[in-house]
User: What shape does this take?
Amino acid sequence: MTIKERFFGFFIIILISFTVFSCKVQKTVSAVTVPKVSADTTEIKLGEEERKEFEYLFIEGLKQKSLGNSDEAIKLFSRCLEIDSSSSATLYEMANIHVSKGDFQSSMFLLEKAVLINPDNQYYHLLLIKVYQQNKLYEKGAHEYEVLSNLVPDNHEFPFYSAALLVMAGKKEEALALYDRLEQKFGISEPSAVGKQQIYIQLGNKKAAYEQIEKLIQLYPAESKYYGLLADMYLADKNREKALENYNKILQIDPNDGFVHLSIADFYLESNDSLRAFQHIVLAFKNAVLDFETKAQMYMLLTKPGINRISDEKQVELLHILIDTHIDDERPRAFLVDYFQGKKQIDEARKQIRLVIDMKKDNYQYWERLLLINNELQDWSAMNNDSKKALEYFPDQPLIYILESVGLLQQKRYNDLLAVIDTGLVHVKNDPKILSQLFTYRAEAYYNLKRYNEAFDVFEKVVELDPENFMALNNYAYYLSLRGERLSVAEKLSAKVIQANPDNATYLDTYAWVFFMKKDYQLAKFYMETALSKASEDSAVLIEHYGDILFYLNEKENAMLQWKKSLEKGNPSKILKLKIAQKKYIETKEN
Assistant: This one.
């Protein structure tokens, strides 16, 4: 939807107002006090015992309905109808439950019977109209509004809703005739004129459509929105000069009308006159009366990926105008975070998201965004500090525990990591994926604390929880191979990972290392060379492992070349230096 459609889109309200009204009706209906049911209120005369049983069941049905026990309520109301099949109140209550469950067919049959029994209850008709709309029986709905017009003559909206439904039913001529009768009775009004305008547009009678809006302008020359309707019509007919003329008439009436500034901006954008468009956008964005949502719609239209219509400089200018104009609203600054992230200015994005959070601490999405930015910056200290603050507001959000765990793992604060996971497991839901993630970090902490048996027990639990947690499976296999334990299990785990991720250099390295520990050096060489070919850049660790494999294949000179290359790539391993110094492989098995 363009800005002009939002501004002047009120003219379609007549065509959809019956839906809005139906929503209001439902609220009214639910608030209605159902009169006490007795033998006197039904067509069937009940005996005293039947009447008492009926009243008990009906009241109990209402109680169950209010508690949300709809199925139990339906059973109780059904028993009521077994006693008195002509109870319109019971039929209505059952229909209401079916409406709430989305069963508009069943509710329609019940309501039609209720209306037949008690034709003077307006609430029955109103709910029946809603059901007819849902079943696309618009003509029947229009008829019900006619009934309501006679039933509640003081409500002048019902006949207009009837006309709108006739249009939906394709009965355009009948709707026009009804609008004419309404004009004879009430005079020319916005609902009738705009309703007729829309019908004439659909019928292709543009002259008559223009005449309807011009009537409104003659009656209300100071009402700017009618000039907007006229401008929209001219624009749709490609008469841009007339459209602009009417937009400018609105500015003459109210120079500070923010909506029309956006409509004119949209006009100039379509004319590829970005300079004039920007001038009107600035005026609209500075308008404190115009709501932020409307401005945001224009901003997103201007900055849509692939068709960005303004420069970075102007984009930032508009965002700062929004921030200054809506000083108590954090959302304009959140847009600024989007901008800086899009431009890869991550430090500035983090600065802005902190300001956003200062304004709106109870918004989880903002905290999550800050933590993810910390992760992108690899600022693990900030990750931990911000995670603790976020948990004060959102102790049940699993991602916070996961991100805090990442930060602690990177800082090698393994005991702190275990404490965070223990707390997280108390709060997070019983989601296998989330539990698998937290248990993975617990296993990593145990392993690095040299609590190897505990680590491997937890890895087993991870595999059970999420057999596709490939990072965990890979690390488990690698750690087993480093310790030379259960190498057949390590091979099986690593093979599963490679099958799902055949181009991942890290996973291929693990697979190669498992074969190396099994002394199958030819297979180890094959998979290590595959890993090196898949790596996006030379990895010092992979190159060292390649040298280890070559050494055992009696390619000792080449092994030395690979070890030296690994050292040149920045490998800090002391054992690597010993390999080079002693010109032989030195085992790195974990103790």
